[in-house]
Amino acid sequence: MFILHSDYGTAGDQQQAIDQLASQLEEGQERCVLLGVTGSGKTFAMAKVVERLQLPTLILSHNKTLARQIWQEMSGLFPDNAVEYFVSYYDYYQPEAYIPGRDLYIDKELQMNERIEQERFSTVASLVSRPDVITVGTVSTIYGLNPPEVFQQNHLRLFVGQKADPQEIVRELVGLHYRRTPGEIVRGDVRLRGEVLDVWMPSRDDPIRIRFGWDGIERIQVCEAVSWEPLDEFEEAWIHPKEFYMTSEERFNTALEDIESELDARVDWFESKDKDLEAHRLEQRTRFDLEMLNEVGSCKGVENYSMHFDGRKRGQRSYCLLDFFASNAEQFHGGSGRYLVIMDESHVTLPQVGGMYGGDFSRKKNLVDFGFRLPSAYDNRPLRVDEFQDLVPQMIYVSATPGERELRHIAEVTGQEVPIGLMHVDGGGGASKSEVDKPKEKQSMEKMLEEIDGIAKMEIRPTGLLDPEIEVRSTEGQVQDLLSEINERVERNERVLVTVLTIKFAEEVAEYLERMGVKAHYLHSEIDTLERTEIIKALRIGLIDVIVGINLLREGLDIPEVSLVAIFDSDKQGFLRNERSLLQTIGRAARNSNGSVILYGDSVSPAMESAISQTVRRRKMQNEYNEENGVVPMTIDKALPVMGSEIDDLLAGVSGRGKSGGKRMVAKRPGKKGLEGLAQRFGLGAGVWNSSNSVLDNISQPEWTDYEEEENEGEAAELILRLEKEMRQAADRLDFERAASLRDRIFKLQNATN
């Protein structure tokens, strides 16, 4: 089963937290909370809990980059188990949308590659065939899949000694949508040559060779894809379907009839409302899809008809990866509830789960109302948060700054009285409405933590590192003041992170620093995932000394070379400067023994006061522990990355490296070598952006306002134009979440100004 391999053991207060979590889960507690400060070893603690419980586990992250980071760590800790990476289509998906105010239709775009599909197959295949599965994925795993029963029923099991006819096996494989070919094969192909059958499953890098004799199957081998040299030999092979979505011919034909019936009814409804344009548009689009389905078995946007193909009723949730975990638990572990979900960075991830359904519905409403899609498109959707919470038997919320929903949820499941400061929060982990309205003044997280029992805490770092020292300075001359601090760190070969409130200001600060001789670069949402990763690598190896960003410098950035974090306008109110955001940002300096933080602000906000108070308390506790146990703080020793070495991996994430799970790494594409080439490729270094003689003329202090507070009509129009540009850029990057968010914001602003 699950066997953890590590050269080190628990340290600090890790073991105490692990024991507490394991005991709570073994006693049947449905929800637990792990508060682990930055650098306390939360991933290692997760792994120890999995080893202790011996349960299949799903680890959820709020973005694919962090999910991949966790997958890498778990793969190293569990080399003999199936550690899988499941990235949904929706992480690489720009969905279709319609903006009525501009009569703008945005067509669906999907950026997929073979490896993404491979990893998805590998995850599902492992879940239906073996008990020791750990899957790391994004929140988008709550989107639809075929039922696990369909996947289990549509497979082929072969074993040595089986009386089987090669031709009959080929016919069965063709029935599983494999393509028969006499020549070279690729994933999803089968080839029969005499008494040798070659099968290449979509989930593997290595094809399978099956040899037949007079008595049936004699050998089953895994072969190298080019030379066909045998790599391993098995007694049994479990061959899964080529396609994710398998539908019987009868169900397929019934679905087409149902789609046509729904179309006729909807067209009649539009015509009864004198909406002839919408009726015509819907009929033309749907008839085309029906023709494609009849001719080739698929069409663009086929997922919008999933309700008909699944045979689900209107409003019924679709199946998802959680159903595969339930099936795995029932098959191998004695009950459908015998699996675990770990939600990493839960203060961000849980709100994502809650918001995905609403965002999906809002987008599709325009499509349905204006005749682009049938109403059944609503049922191709992610889970609602209440459905998600009902499906998950046991879950650990993991964060350095647990959110209000998580804190209330643990109070509810453990029978504690919900603190007054949490009464305005939705109950059941976001599944039920709150009893009272949100108060004007919120209770601090520190106070809430004191009022709730049963929270497992890791506040002592195994490295002995202390929380960073914090200094508050005035905003007057903050850029020039920061420059002197940066120069000190550069002399010590240390790095600096700077957070600001706006994209414009981030670029201006970075480019000012560049002009002053500092190797600086900005980092914000207009830079795509790959480039962001390379910029962070460049910072670690010293190609860059300073990164200036916005909220991208918080969760999951593990950069031990950073000794200084500077936060501009720290006293402003809002999401980017609330208590949790400040604590997360402060934590970026906690992996270096010289870590320090400068808060630039002209006053001390309640959020600043609470964040400073918690940091000072933890620092004192950590120092006392070090003195009592003779621990000397040491900067985290983390291997330096290689520029450009993991671009392919980042695109899809590769599957588990376990012995029994198989090595499914594929060959990397050759790229331009050397730091200079990569620096040029990604535009590292801020460069020159203005011909002004005075660089200070280019530095502006941002006036921080929420978009909802824009009142001036001219400013609103300018803002809309800027947001439209950002939306198009996000669409070009296939960043659908960002594009959809910007689209909704534009629509809201347009309505407000009309």
Question: What is the topological layout?
Answer:
Elements: H1 14-26, E1 31-36, H2 42-53, E2 57-61, H3 64-77, E3 82-86, E4 93-94, E5 97-99, E6 104-106, E7 109-110, H4 114-129, E8 133-138, H5 148-153, E9 156-159, H6 166-175, E10 179-180, E11 189-193, E12 196-199, E13 208-213, E14 216-223, E15 230-234, E16 236-239, H7 249-272, H8 276-296, H9 306-310, H10 321-332, E17 340-344, H11 346-369, H12 385-391, E18 395-399, H13 404-413, H14 427-430, H15 445-451, E19 456-458, E20 469-473, H16 478-491, E21 495-499, H17 503-515, E22 520-523, H18 529-541, E23 546-549, E24 562-567, H19 579-586, E25 596-600, H20 606-629, H21 647-652, H22 675-682, H23 713-732, H24 736-753
Parallel strand pairs: 1-18, 1-19, 2-8, 2-17, 3-8, 10-11, 17-18, 20-25, 21-23, 21-24, 22-23, 24-25
Antiparallel strand pairs: 4-7, 5-6, 9-16, 11-12, 12-13, 13-14, 14-15
Structure, described:
The protein is 41% helix and 15% strand. The protein has 754 residues and is α/β, with parallel strands linked by helices. Helix 7 runs antiparallel to helix 8. It is globular, with a radius of gyration of 28 Å. The chain folds into 5 domains: 28-148 and 318-403 and 440-458, 3-Layer(aba) Sandwich (Rossmann fold); 156-239, Penicillin-binding protein 1b fold; 249-310; 469-647 and 660-682, P-loop containing nucleotide triphosphate hydrolases (Rossmann fold, 3-Layer(aba) Sandwich); 705-753. Strand 11 and strand 12 (196-199) form a beta hairpin. A 7-stranded parallel beta sheet has the order 3-8-2-17-18-1-19, with helices on both faces.
